[in-house]
Each structure stands twice: as C-alpha cells, then as structure tokens.
Amino acid sequence: MKDKSTISRRTVLAGGAALATLATTRSGWAQAETGERPVVLITGTSSGFGRLMAEGFARGGAHVIAAMRQVSGRNAAAAEELRVLSGDGMAIDVVEIDVLSEQSVNAGVARAIENTGQIDVLVSNAGIVVPGPVELQTPADFASNIDTNMGGALRVYRAVVPHMRDQGQGTIIQMSSALGRAIDPMLGGYCASKLAVEAAADALAYEVAASNIEVSIVQPADAYPTRLQENAIRYWEEMLSRRDAADRAKLDVYAPHIEAMLAGLEPDRDLDPREVSDAVIHLASMPFGERPGRLTVGPYKDGIDPVNAAHDQLQNDMMEHNPIIGLLTLD
Q: For 114, what's the count of Cα atoms within 13 Å in the CB-facing half-sphere?
C-alpha cells in the first residue's frame, strides 16, 4: 500500500507556487523528450478555450485531435480554420464529436486512435450555460446543462480511459469553473453541472490511479470572453420561447434578477482567455506525478483556492478511513 504522501499528490498547490512551476515549463514538452509527438484530444474546439488550446498545443509540438460537433454545419468555418493551421510543423486533425451522443463520442475517439495510434492527453472542455431562475426552468432545461457538461465528460471518459489503460499511461484534464465551488444565482443548472463534473473527476482520479492515469481539474475564475456567454443568451431566449402562459406571468417577478443575469453574462474584455488555455497547456506539460489535482486561473483565484484547500483536507481525511486507499497506486 502506498503511503499517504503518494495519495496526496493531488493536494492543491498554493497558487503562486503552482503558476511559477508552470511558467518554467518549456514548450514542445513531450516531443523534445521522446522524439514523438504526444497526441492530445480536446473536445469543444470550435471556439473559446478549446480553440485556443488546439492551436497552442499544436504550436508546442503536440498532435492535436480537435473535436467539435456539426463539423459540416454550424462549425464548418471553425473546422476549416483549424485544418488550415495544420502543416508547417503543426499537426491538427478535426474530428466530429457531439458529446451528447455516446455513438458520436465512441466513433470519434475510435477514429482518433485509428489515425494516431494513441491518446496521451484528454482535455474535456465541451460545455454550455443554460441560464435562468430555477423556478422557470423545466427539468429538461435544467438538465441540459448537466447532460452536456457532466454527461458529455462521462461519455468521453468511458471512451478514452480503456485506451489509456491499455497503453499504460494517460492524462485527463477536466475543464470546470469557479462555479464548481461557488453558486451564482440565475446559473443554478450550470453550477450544478460543474459541481457534478468535479465530483466525478475527483472520483475518477482515485479509480484510475492504479492504471497510471492522472486526472486534473482546471477552474477558470472569471468571465473570460469566449462564445460561452453569447450562446448562453441564445439558450435563454430559446427557453423563454417555450414557456407557457403561467411561467411567462412569473417573468415580472424575476425582472430585476433577469436584468442582473444578462449584465453578468457580459464577458470581461479586459481578460485574456489565453491565460486559461496557456495554463492548461503548461499543466499538461508538467512531469507525470507532479500535476496538481486542481488549478484555478483568474482574478477570483484567491477566493476559490481556500475553498479547494479545505475540500482537499477534508477529502484526504476521509480517504484515511476508506478501504479503497489500499488499492491506489501510481506505479
């Protein structure tokens, strides 16, 4: 049985120390060390953090599998933009994956493995926000956050983990949010989905440690300008169009809340989303066994880190009394 110091490699690192370590990591990480391109599968690459990560990983020497839905439809231009980048030392393959469909996920992952022979890093990034008062959301509206953000991650885990186990090692980076720890009224479904995906990723980290697979969570901690907010407003408007007369009558009650919600969905243009994508790329480049279990990036980091640290302490205390601890090993 491993001692507790081995199990607690997932303890939360102090923010400054973690970022200092990440900042010293060179680009072209695995290729420089092995002579081969590491293969990185990223979901949700049509825009935002995913799009930036796809290009950043490729420029760093990785072979990127850029996954997105509607490759021949709504996201055709985004797919072509990534394809054009491939070449001149960069390798990017675009694969269609809709994380809402197990069949699509399985087919896309199988195609990626057929083309490259391996998946070294999975970045589970696809996500949506369907905002609004909990009272005005049908179970289906509320669950749409969870089915994409949590269910989508689970479908991809199920497709990728067996492959990583067979190849003897792998890294999974799960994109979350500061709202996986703190609750934002009017974003109840989104917060629930991020709370759920963090719980699942934490459990997965314990369960696959013996297979030499590491799991880390990244929490952006502010309204970085991506298409997430624009899409959230579209989802809100679509949800309103489906409300019956009784629910529409409640809109007046929530009018000030809705006004505040829409203002809060305005992205902060002073923030650079590359802070997040760069942090993910550096996290992936850290030596196996030295990555933090969580990394928070953004202005609200100082508020979220103590919550993560308290959770980490509680979790480690609980694991001391859990019989599964004897089954955990990173060898």
A: 7
CA distance 89 to 280: 21
Phi-psi region of 201 (alpha: psi -120 to 50; beta: other; left: phi over 0): alpha
Please provide the DSSP assignment of 209-249 as one string: GGGTEEEEEEEE-S--SSHHHHHHHHHHHHHHHT--HHHHH
Q: At what angle do helices 152-167 and 188-208 cross, to 10 degrees?
A: 20
Residue positions annotated with a catalytic role: 190
Read off the pLDDT of residues 223-242 as tens digits, 9 standing for 90 and up.
999 999 989 999 999 999 99
Q: How confident is the model at residue 104 (pLDDT cuts 50, 70, 90)?
A: very high
Over 60: is that where the pLDDT of 212 sits?
yes
List domains and CATH numbers for the chain: 4-327 (3.40.50.720)
CB atoms within 10 A of CB 79: 20
Alpha-carbon 282 to chain mean position: 15
